[in-house]
Amino acid sequence: MIAMILAGGVGTRLWPYSRSMTPKQFLNLGSTHESLFQETCTR
Is residue 36 part of a domain? Predict the structure, then answer.
């Protein structure tokens, strides 16, 4: 089995935090200080 994490979109709702150099899946959100991508990998 191969796991895939799908993420897309331009992240206009999270601008100016989300930009082309820092997509929204790599932003540190919440109290865990991990990106959404890291939290998904941990799960």
Answer: yes
